[in-house]
Amino acid sequence: MSFFDKFSKEKEAELDKGLEKTKQSFFGKIAKAVAGKSKVDVEFLDELEQILISADVGLETTVKIIDRLEAKVEAEKFFSVDELNRLLREVIVDILGENNTEDIVDFSIPDTNTPHVILVVGVNGVGKTTTIGKLSHQYKKQNKLIVLGAGDTFRAAAVDQLEIWANRANTFFFSKGMHTDPAAVAYETVQFAQSNYIDVAIIDTAGRLHTKKHLMDELTKIKNSISKKMPGAPHEVLLVLDATTGQNAIEQARHFTQATDVTAIALTKLDGSAKGGVALGISDQFKIPIKYVGVGEGIEQLQVFNRMAFVNSLFK
To answer: Which of 43, 76, 231, 285 has its CA 20 to 30 Å from the CA of residue 140?
Structure first.
């Protein structure tokens, strides 16, 4: 069975809708840049560079795309809108294929770890708690037992918000209340999961500002606390980023990857942004897989990220 047999028409339509603003902005500008031209010249490449940067692909990745596109055009000696789109598609697929972004088709977890521990990090407002809730829902559909650990003990109502999502997704919930030690919450969440034969433990953390060094130090303390209770854990450190923030998301990724061993990225609010190109910059610059994308507010509107589905949707 091929990937597209598994990737339902409903999910495909959701992804198409989620990327609509990016497509309208990105390809509309490219069409204008191409109009009346019969060859790739310096003027066109300059325009394309600005188009890619405005889509928040990022300067480093933009330069890489331009260089490779120029080489392909030189080699193949032609130019039209259709051919340009084909070449751009090839370049983007190649770049995504050079990092650790994997083509995954479902929300399965390894059977080797019980519990499978996921530490979720990111600044306030990026959709971190919502992503945890949506992810819990997907695991629950697989008949997994899940516990959500309320490690965000500083932000007002954060514990309550996570509990609401735990109830909505019908999962276990572990909390020590507000103003308690987050590292202790993380430790005891894993302990609770081990004692109750739970499959997945997802631990929330405070929406710590990446410019605050002491908060990043605390993130390291939380991770060490988990490892102390369960060697090898956390098995995933999931960084949640908001696609609508564009280059700021890349800056956040830079700081968080310096503070802890981020293993995967969830890119939220893709449907609300014309800056879907940030997915290319993030995956290219940090070599960390984008694992999930949020394409709407609904509990079902979290998808696994598949580079082929993403590129195919982008170029429809």
So the answer is: 231
